[in-house]
Amino acid sequence: MKQKVPEYRGILRHHFIEVPEVIHEASGIRFFGRRIRSLVFSTDAAIIRNINADAVIAVYPFTPQPAITHAVMVAADMPVFAGVGGGVTRGPRVINLAMDAEFQGATAVVVNAPTENSVIAKLKMTVDIPVVVTVVSELTDIQARLDAGADMLNVSGASRTPEIVRTIREKFPDVPIIATGGPSEKTILETIRAGANAITYTPPSSGELFRISMDKYRDAQAGVSGV
Fold first, then answer.
1. Which of 110, 139, 204, 222 is 20 to 30 A from 70 (CA-CA)?
2. DSSP states along 17-34
């Protein structure tokens, strides 16, 4: 018999973002004894502090900066997967950023799809945390990535993500796969069934959430004034 899980939400902090329940269908990946099924894709401190995801994947469209990694680490009360470049930022700088991220307490480092295998190999010789390599196409030479030292894959193929995951899983049944889940529970479940072990979830922005709150305040004020 499945036991009921007691829950405490508090008064001031009961309003938070919950990742889609279907993500719990994923097997998860154990990192240093902690099982992670959901990763929130955000560097927004307010979002990170108010979501029930298992971890943060802090990658962003700028060259990685230690100050940003530090800010995310301070805000997060869960493991952080820190982006360290591999696209615009390459070579020794990626290694240095990865070392800094590990020293700050990151659980894993994430490199972008263009990262050279030689850089992945140097990362593995430098840091003692998992190296996560991003994959955007099934044409990627996955075996070469694994041979270089990739510990797991981060599949980000937009609408084609489930197909890419399925292709990888057929050839590499044991490789840990994190993947973007898409916009709905249906696409998340499809990605899990294709073989993803953990799902990256993109939450609504602070602006979108604040707009909802402001609309409620306006409606309530209109009711009070009789407008």
1. 204
2. B---GGGGGS--EEETTE
